[in-house]
Design brief:
Order of helices and strands: HHHHHHHHHHHHHH
Structural class: mainly alpha
Strand content: under 5%
Distance between the termini: 26 Å
Largest sheet: none
Helix content: over 70%
């Protein structure tokens, strides 16, 4: 009987690979959340800002092209720069989360991302914009890895619903970001001003027809208000990331994890 009861007790506390449902008492996950609510909300807010950083680039591409005087074809390089350094940041995050307490790492990465967001509309050359997005990408990757790993350390095998909540906030940030940006966009392709393939008479006619808003590159750079969208998102990120400065040290949670689970 002892050998038979052993596996049964094991399956009651550990999810199986086959995906068998583990029975929990009513309100079990709510109790877990209440014990770790501050740090969980912090990670969700940081992931919200992560989603905002991912989703702004596509809608603002034309306006950023006007600001840095670059045609649409070459602007695609900034996607590559950001994506590559997000990957590198994710790798770096795995090292940092093992060497340092996660909250300070998250705080630094979030602050740098917010600063880069504020600087983006001030760029006037493509290489500078790509550099800023690369720095932001590294910190985005760090946020991604550190948040996921830290949440797993806090909740252990019970992390599933909390990881789903974390990635819900990522999606929410990616959903909100384009809506913040849209009212400030000029949405004009400045390629014809940059490559000089269109005559002034043709440009003037296009302006009269309403197919162009600005008649020159300088006018397009003046008319776009995309900088205000970036600064609004920066303020939102700073406000959300303020929670990170108030969070208790993660080690307090890890040290008490065993006793907390026993009480549940």
């Amino acid at each position: 009987m002892a050998s038979a009861s052993g596996p049964q007790l094991h399956t009651m506390h550990m999810p199986t690979i086959e995906g068998a449902v583990v029975k929990r008492e009513k309100g079990y996950f709510l109790k877990l959340f209440q014990r770790h609510k501050h740090i969980t909300v912090t990670y969700c807010c940081v992931f919200w800002t992560f989603g905002m950083c991912v989703a702004f680039l596509g809608p603002t591409l034309l306006d950023l092209g006007c600001l840095v005087s670059t045609d649409f074809q070459h602007m695609s390089w900034i996607f590559f720069a950001q994506s590559l350094f997000v990957l590198l940041g994710s790798l770096a995050g795995g090292y940092l989360v093992e060497k340092f307490t996660s909250n300070p790492v998250l705080l630094v990465a979030a602050i740098i991302s917010a600063l880069m967001m504020a600087v983006i509309p001030l760029c006037r050359v493509l290489w500078m914009l790509a550099l800023i997005l690369a720095i932001m990408g590294i910190n985005m990757g760090i946020i991604d890895t550190v948040s996921n790993v830290s949440l797993i350390k806090v909740y252990g095998t019970d992390v599933s619903p909390f990881l789903q909540a974390l990635h819900f906030f990522y999606g929410f940030g990616a959903f909100v970001s384009p809506m913040i940006v849209e009212p400030f966009l000029l949405n004009e392709d400045c390629t014809l001003f940059v490559d000089n393939t269109t005559s002034e008479a043709e440009v003037h006619q296009m302006v009269l027809n309403g197919s162009l808003v600005a008649g020159t590159l300088e006018e397009a750079q003046k008319d776009t208000r995309v900088k205000y969208a970036f600064w609004i998102m920066t303020m939102l990120q700073v406000r959300l990331n303020y929670l990170s400065t108030c969070s208790p040290c993660n080690s307090c949670y890890y040290a008490n994890k065993k006793s907390i689970n026993n009480n549940l």
